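Lab meeting notes turned into a lecture example. A postdoc, R.K., suggested we walk through two folding results consecutively so the class can see how the record format repeats. The first protein's sequence and structure tokens come next.
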Amino acid sequence: MEQPLMTEATRINRIPWKLNLTLLLVGVAWLVAYNIIEPLAAWITYDVLGLAHGSQLGESLAFFLYDVPKILLLLSGMIFLISIIRTFFSPERTRALLGGKRQGVGNVLAAMLGIVTPFCSCSAVPLFIGFVESGIPLGVTFSFLIAAPMINEVAVVMLLGLYGWRIAGMYIVLGLIIAILSGIVIGRLKMEHHVEDFVWQVQVGESGPQEKLTWPDRVDRAWQSVKEIVGKVWLYVVIGIAIGALIHGFVPADALGNIMGQNQWWTVPAAVLLGIPLYSNAAGVIPIVSALISKGAALGTALAFMMSVVALSLPEMIILRRVLKPRLLAVFIGVVAVAIIITGYVFNIVL
């Protein structure tokens, strides 16, 4: 029986078996590498170098050796996957999804998207580049950039277990409000020219509706995006994590608890300022917040500290500096910091 001829659409959409095998092997290697980083970092720090468990230098070095490859792996993997996905969407379709028909609609959609994407700010850099390069309004992009690290589903579950649905619900609602309003404010300032020039020039797998791409084409574009973007930001990632590692190992939690336990008006802004130099994600900082509350810190003050750590940490700002010019970065920090401070006061008044 005569076999039907392969149509052009079938040829384009079909993934060659060799490419399938290569992607499978790369994916397995990525997972293996990601899962051995932590024990490998601990082995190098405590067994090979002989540093003591719990020592300041040991904790800092183990943190650094774990986080640098972890973030670079996450960054590379995310850029690759996002770039593959973007080959199926033209900039016009992306703008239609997040641009919004009315004022604020795009910010709400972007903030909601940020909730379900468990990225820290440094991991959100490739998404930021993709959004901006696709023509999505800058303010909408910032709503995503703020919500993604701040409203973490692991943090929500942990807050729910530790403090109940009321606290967890307030955390989600206020985090969303911060992301939406901050994005709207930044969007109204019209600061597109304060995004670094290379961001506008990066072509992250862009394809028009008439362009016919095979799977090898898509994979090649994604790989080129990985090399281009990681090549531009890796040094900032290393510097940022190095600063975070030093603070992680050498800043005592008792000192933070003493400051945040003071029942004074200045404790909330002080907590935000203290959180900025630190480095962690929401899930990682919640045990610290719980310890601070047990030492007498007010809940709103402690949560403001947590929000500043996950949304405004100095290491992540160093990474974001690679894609934002100083004035826009300063506006971003200022707008979000004010919103977090207000949130801390609200929690302290209501609870």
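The second example is placed directly after the first for contrast:
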Amino acid sequence: MKDVKAYLKRNKNDAADAAAICEAVRRPTMRFVRVKSEEQQGQLMQHRTRDLLMRQRTQLINALRGHLAEFGIVAAKGDAGLKELLAIVADDRDERLPSDARASVIVLAAQLEAAQTMLRSLDKRIMKQHRANEASRRLESIPGIGIIGASAIAATVSDPMVFRSGRDFAAWIGLVPRQDSTGGKQKLGPISKQGDRYLRRIIIIGAHAVLRRAKENPHKYPWLTQLLARRPFKVVAVALANKMARTAWALLAHGDTYRAPELVAAA
């Protein structure tokens, strides 16, 4: 709608909207969204379903922990603590939980197990598709882009040449600064957050994982170590995510395989 707004006449009605759309679509600088195939839509639907189940699983875990904490039953974070709580829920001999409370948390535990079972099933399908896709396997070689990120990018971007460069691809995901320039003064703000939210979140999460490894092995990631010394962690994470997106586009566009910078320098 933002691209059509400039051609909209004074009154807001269906006829004016249609005329503005017809006018905008004839502009040579207008951008168009390529229609996805049914196979792509099916693959991306798996990612969306998995993302929904992940959020529901988190909600169930938080609810289970919160209800048990009301009776003084707490456990450490992570899978080990969750298994401890589930064992308490399943133990009828544990008298710390009243019967009504136990009946409620048993329902949550059953839903959690069902969600985890469905997630494992989706992960197997995504893994199978990833192994069968040559472009997805090449994308996985980029540090910070795992199987989920690689398969999502490969399914979303069927033709990388619709983007003129890696910067255009990063801008499409929303990983470039938002401009608010006027009077010849260049002012860059936070990232635009336009484009595909799912891809942007996955790439930024992957960048966080790389930064954690960079803190543990600073000599292996000198560029990130120097940047972390000057800028906040999240700012560096977005900068790294931008670089990862550009690298992903380059691999898709040119058919290359990722090579670490030290290996390139030694060649």
